[in-house]
Amino acid sequence: MGDRDMNETWAHISDLAFEAALAGYVVALVCYAIEFASRRGGDVPADQAVGASRGAVAGRGGGTSTLTRTGGSGADVGQIGALAPRGTAGWGERFGRAAVVVTVIGWVANVIAVLARGLAAGRLPLGNMYEFTSVFCAAAVLCWLIILARTGARTMGLFVMFPVVILAFVAGTVLYVPAAPVVPALNSYWKWIHVTTVALSSSVLMVSGAASVLYLLRGRHDRRVAAAAGADTEQAPAAEQIGPGAPAARPAAAARPAAAARSVFDKLPSTSTLDRIAYRTAIVAFPVYTFAVIAGAMWAEVAWGRYWGWDPKETCAFISWVIYASYLHARSTAGWRGRRAAWISVVGFASILFNLFFVNMVVSGLHSYAGLN
User: Fold this and answer.
1) What mean pLDDT comes out for the span 204-226?
2) Nearest Cα to 43, choosing from 284, 263, 332, 292?
């Protein structure tokens, strides 16, 4: 078998492995969605849960109420009552565990696709948007699996795998090109250093941005629940003056936060968990992204004879760097923590996606990938 036949064999293996990875990611997404739909509630903030529990105690005239927190399915589930139901149904729990297994299988297939593509092309598989997106998806899924192992926040899987599935589908359809060598003028070791670090750091920043979006959604829901609980507390004394039957009205009022806990947003991990994920992933990715920008300047000097030329992609990369530097600075400033910092992270997430995909596929420039412009 000649080198040409061997390359074609590796290319065929890569294509099959990528299709298997896409299928695995889709199945995992469906399993995450089924588990998420089966959940009755996620993290109930401690201050709200304790307040609701105290209201229930007063309504029962001194009865005992406990706050049960179970975390076996990824997000702690707060329930009121000694006989509170589990946050996840048995079949939902099984789908959640299956989602993790299929995610790992899909990731392994994705890695095989990347390695086989490199063997088929005889270079690092980062020479076009299809290869870049394939590596991007593999890195993002690996980051998610590490976060899952450290935090157990499995309900976040639906929102991480959704963009991964979209990107993998676009890569396998719109962006796909056969394996081939790159232009010799661009075949510099700085290119591989730059593109590799950009793919790795950007994928981790995507997970950070997803966590920030969920943080804002969960925080908005928690504030509404807290406001409803405060309104019920203010109305409770008037009910006590009606007569002997009045105390029975208090458990109904106190139960409103529990009803709110059945909201789809309450199935998300707690705001503290989401905030921690967003910040720690950004802390890891930002230095790598900084190095990627520097390596890109080095590659530009080798390929084009200048370090910086305000090419559209260079400009967007600089803007993204400034945004994430602002986010990390905001996290160290007391007045800008929480929602304000999360919004900066979301803007940075949008700039990363705009830079990686819109600039490459729509805007003409020196960084545009072959076959797309």
Assistant:
1) 89
2) 263
